[in-house]
């Protein structure tokens, strides 16, 4: 018999967060989450998203053992902006047992119906900086710190229950190899000179901090048409800045401004944390932080977190400035390649940026599912 219980205490939250870390501990492609940050993400006293989201989290038990987990999110802001009536599924993991899966899904389904909602979607988070998308292809590929990993049977169970595709995201591997880099560099110089653009020279995190509000303002503006996106609040901006500042290396952040110091474009890449997270299983203390600092200071691989270009400059050659700036630093540091985070499969504005580089396209594919209630 499968028993579902709601996460209420700190002990419950820790069990909820660590369940996938334990279930996938022998899977080479799985990358543990950072336990400390994820504990904050599902805590209503710490995560500002609770100001516009109702969130509940559940664990599944069978024969006295935890066998699954699931979260539900009612984003009132998203439903208002997108004129929808949806409940979001998030952070769902379960053993290969259809009964366990059904009990978890039914829990979210019943909550949605009680709230007179019309559909379930997911996996998707409380905002675009939260993890989203169920892996449906690329199970043999090493995962990323910022994405989910799951077994192939997840998708089989979703289809069996009646879920259908809402959208897909794809991920790509971009090598630090480009035969046309000299030509792209010349284009970048012409564009910068003609428009009085410059790339910020960030030497310390203190140099970056004054630009953080403007970075998120640009993201809110340029990401607003993407699937399910809601603008971040001022409190969320502070929250994410606090989490991300400790994980970045300034050499791989490129910010382009105009003569009035207004943001034109940005590219935020971060050192891959795969090695350190796997070694410490997501726990920084007592010694996990040593490997983390090593990954940050001397990376082999980069993760592309965020890329945004102000709308009126997308066709003006500005992407060339971002690409050459990051390329030169990555090449000097002997970076092997960079991996993109999930990109909507039809988001050609971003995907065409890599067409001049040696690229392994669609190494992983993810899906957001939907089902009427």
Give an account of the 3D structure.
With 373 residues, this protein is of the alpha+beta class. The chain folds into two domains: 2-171, Gcn5-related N-acetyltransferase (GNAT) (Aminopeptidase), CATH 3.40.630; 174-363, Gcn5-related N-acetyltransferase (GNAT) (Aminopeptidase), CATH 3.40.630. The chain contains 13 helices and 14 strands. The protein has helices spanning 10-23, 35-41, 76-82, 98-114, 153-161, 181-195, 205-208, 212-223, 234-244, 274-280, 288-297, 318-332, 348-351; strands spanning 2-6, 53-62, 65-75, 86-94, 119-122, 134-137, 164-175, 198-199, 253-257, 263-271, 301-309, 337-340, 343-344, 359-372. Strands 1, 2, 3, 4, 5, 6, 7, 8, 9, 10, 11, 12, 13 and 14 form a 14-stranded mixed β-sheet that branches. Helix 12 (318-332) links the parallel strand 11 and strand 12. It starts with a strand and ends with a strand.
CATH first level of the largest domain: which class?
Alpha Beta
Kindly, what is the distance between the CA atoms of the first and last residues, rounded to a whole number of angstroms? 25 Å
The rough form would be described as globular
Structural class: alpha+beta
CATH architecture of the largest domain: 3-Layer(aba) Sandwich
């Amino acid at each position: 018999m499968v028993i579902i219980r709601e996460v209420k205490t700190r002990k419950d939250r820790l069990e909820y967060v660590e369940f996938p870390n334990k279930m996938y501990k022998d899977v080479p492609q799985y990358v543990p989450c950072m336990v400390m940050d994820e504990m904050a993400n599902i805590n209503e006293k710490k995560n500002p998203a609770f100001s516009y989201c109702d969130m509940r989290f559940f664990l599944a038990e069978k024969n006295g053992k935890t066998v699954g987990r699931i979260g539900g999110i009612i984003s009132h802001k998203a439903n208002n902006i997108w004129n929808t009536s949806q409940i979001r599924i998030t952070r769902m993991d379960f053993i290969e047992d259809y009964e366990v899966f059904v009990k978890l899904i039914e829990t979210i389904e019943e909550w949605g119906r009680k709230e007179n909602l019309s559909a379930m979607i997911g996996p998707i988070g409380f905002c675009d900086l939260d993890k989203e998308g169920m892996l449906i292809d690329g199970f043999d590929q090493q995962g990323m710190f910022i994405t989910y990993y799951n077994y192939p049977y997840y998708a089989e169970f979703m289809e069996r229950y009646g879920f259908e595709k809402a959208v897909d995201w794809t991920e790509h591997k971009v090598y630090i190899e480009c035969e046309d880099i000299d030509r792209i560099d010349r284009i970048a110089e012409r564009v910068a000179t003609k428009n009085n653009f410059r790339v910020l020279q960030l030497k310390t995190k203190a140099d970056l901090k004054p630009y953080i509000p403007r970075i998120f303002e640009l993201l809110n503006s340029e990401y607003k048409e993407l699937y399910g996106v809601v603008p971040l609040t001022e409190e969320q901006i502070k929250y994410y800045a606090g989490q991300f500042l400790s994980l970045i290396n300034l050499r791989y952040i490129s910010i382009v401004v105009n003569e009035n110091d207004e943001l034109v474009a940005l590219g935020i890449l971060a050192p891959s944390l795969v090695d350190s997270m796997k070694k410490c299983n997501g726990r920084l203390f007592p010694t996990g932080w040593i490997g983390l600092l090593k990954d940050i200071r001397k990376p082999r691989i980069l993760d592309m977190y965020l890329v945004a270009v102000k709308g009126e400059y997308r066709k003006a050659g500005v992407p060339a400035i971002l690409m050459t700036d990051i390329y030169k630093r990555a090449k000097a540091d002997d970076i092997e390649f960079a991996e993109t985070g999930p990109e909507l499969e039809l988001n050609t504005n971003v995907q065409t940026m890599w067409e001049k580089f040696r690229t392994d396209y669609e190494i992983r594919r993810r899906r957001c599912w939907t089902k009427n209630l």
